[in-house]
Amino acid sequence: MTSSIFASGGDKSEIETGLSFQPKFDKDGLIAVVITDHISAEVLMVGYMNDEALKRTIDTCEAWYWSRSRQEYWKKGGTSGQIQKVMEIRTDCDQDAIVLKVSVEGNGATCHVGYNSCFFRKVVKTEDGTIALTSPDQGRVYDPKDVYGEK
Amino acid sequence: MTSSIFASGGDKSEIETGLSFQPKFDKDGLIAVVITDHISAEVLMVGYMNDEALKRTIDTCEAWYWSRSRQEYWKKGGTSGQIQKVMEIRTDCDQDAIVLKVSVEGNGATCHVGYNSCFFRKVVKTEDGTIALTSPDQGRVYDPKDVYGEK
Predict the structure, then answer these.
(1) How many beta-carbon pairs below 8 A join chains A and B?
(2) A49: CATH
(3) In terms of CB atoms within 10 Å, which of A6, A88, B35, B150 comes out highest?
(4) For residue A144, which residues of chain B lie inside 8 Å, CB to CB?
């Protein structure tokens, strides 16, 4: 897919080691974004942006995403107050992924079920060989009902 | 897509907060994986696994991926020696992303162009308003020619 906003067409060497930003969107027009805490470096969530969401994020220094399930733009924190102030943006060698280093406003949490990070469970092998998740190893920062109401 | 190896079919609450591992693969059968250094927490790369690659990763504690460009399995480090020993695996609330905390063997680098992390460039706005990348802000750990040969 050719992006309508960003440059494209660089050769492999230019994309991998050059200074031209040419984000590579997938066939659905999306790029994967890893959101980390700018101080602890903890991975908080993974989201997806299309070119317009990426442009809004760069222009406003607040994270915008494209919701694959709702098929709409969403500014993270629009409802919850958990705005992600963007402190740094990085891309990888083949420019098909983005890392955002953010400072989270409001209650400081990221996950909609109440935890600081969406990655609050480990994947482990149990004694009988099955693969399961551990109980959350961090406490809830907030009760989702207080932020999103009863569901 | 229904995974052939892992459980599926849990309701929203079970998936988001329960202890059953039900990874959600996309319509191409893939799940996004964020690889971080198990000590510094730095994001090293983003890769993709299908269910078999994820199973191999869990079974062997070494990271296996599905290459979207080559359409084949690849064990990270098979050529370069940069094996990723998996210290911890996490999944997120909706179980459609994975975080691997790894220890990198060999020369300790991850990126195929020679850097410790694939995210060696920042995305910045220049003075004239264009969006560009910065020069790498980390030194090369190795010369790719020494590992992969001349290309």
Answers:
(1) 123
(2) 3.10.20.810
(3) B35
(4) none
Question: Across the interface, do B19 and A118 touch by the CB < 8 Å criterion?
Answer: no
What is the SS3 string spanning A97-129?
Answer: EEEEEEEECCCCCCCCCCCCCCCCEEEEECCCC
Domain that holds residue B106: 12-118
Nearest to A121 among B91, B97, B120 (CB): B91
Interface test mutation site (partner B, options A11, A34, A117, max chain B beta carbons within 10 A): A34
What's the average pLDDT block by block, 10 residues per block, for chain A (151 residues)? Answer: 75 96 95 98 97 96 93 93 97 98 96 96 93 93 88 58
Domain membership of residue A144 (yes or no) is no
Please say whether the beta carbons of A121 and A44 come within 8 A: no
Structural domain includes residue A105: yes
CA distance A34 to A84: 12
For residue A2, tell me if it sits in a domain: no
pLDDT digits (tens, 9 = 90+) for B86-111: 999 999 999 999 999 999 999 999 99
Kindly state the DSSP code that residue B28 receives in the 8-state scheme. T
B137 in a domain, yes or no?
no
Number of domains making up chain A: 1
